[in-house]
Amino acid sequence: MGSGEQGADAGVAWKDGVIPVSTRFDDPYFSLADGLAETRHVFLAGNGLPDRLADGFHVAELGFGTGLNLLALLIAWTQTGRRGGLRYTSFEAYPLPATDIARALRHFPEAHAVAGPFLSQWDNAPAGGVKRIALAGIEAQVILGDARDTLPAWQGRADAWFLDGFSPAKNPELWSPEIMAEVGRHTAAGGSFATYTAAGHVRRSLEAAGFAVTRQAGHGRKRHMTTGTKV
Ligand SMILES: C[S@@+](CC[C@H](N)C(=O)[O-])C[C@H]1O[C@@H](n2cnc3c(N)ncnc32)[C@H](O)[C@@H]1O
């Protein structure tokens, strides 16, 4: 661990001065190797994106963290040149302050270059309940609170899910059979999920939740990841 500086709300330390690590969960917010490349491999390609993206397409995420996944999606959507806009709903219990998010994103010049409008709205967005962020091409909302409470109450359905809690061993509450059942219940017909983990109990819970589940090659040194389509 680097200097051991602590963020106020979420509890962040900085590995090598650049990678945010949750002190609450003892796990990094993204891959130590190349977080942006991992996001593109796992969450975008794993959900068949950007090919499936179209006006009104709705992405949902468990664990907003630094917003890196949102920005990777924003870059991919912009590059398609397609018309209209996407919707993005993320669930986050311990929102990071914008200063920590900006510091984390500086590690990824491509994402940081498009992060301005997101960062300028983040701390100003009303803190209670839901933060709404309007980006060019994506209407995002981050639903604050424990996903075990907020996801069952959510009225929406996603076309694609990014399942991005901390590792199942360290953050089991975000990977429980109950939460995976809620993910299934909040997925549109033909919708999909992707996650970096290949944990057997997560795979089985997602099968029970109504997905046809596939194990795929993971990013970098991770051998496997998991994807699925609602059947
Ligand atoms: C691996 S990080 C997410 C990284 C993020 N997707 C990004 O692009 O930076 C996991 C996130 O899940 C959040 N989290 C953990 N348990 C949660 C819970 N029970 N409900 C909602 N969010 C939770 C953590 O606060 C953390 O921000």
From TrEMBL:
Keywords: Methyltransferase, Transferase. One of its GO terms (biological process) is methylation. One of its GO terms (molecular function) is oxidoreductase activity, acting on the CH-NH group of donors. PANTHER family: MNMC-LIKE METHYLTRANSFERASE DOMAIN-CONTAINING PROTEIN, SLL0983 PROTEIN. Coiled coil: none annotated. The keyword Lipoprotein does not apply. Transmembrane segments: none annotated. This is tRNA (5-methylaminomethyl-2-thiouridine)(34)-methyltransferase MnmD. Residues 110-230 form the MnmC-like methyltransferase domain. It comes from Paragemmobacter straminiformis. It comes from the Bacteria. NCBIfam families: tRNA_MNMC2. InterPro entries: MnmC-like_methylTransf (IPR008471), SAM-dependent_MTases_sf (IPR029063), tRNA_MNMC2 (IPR047785).
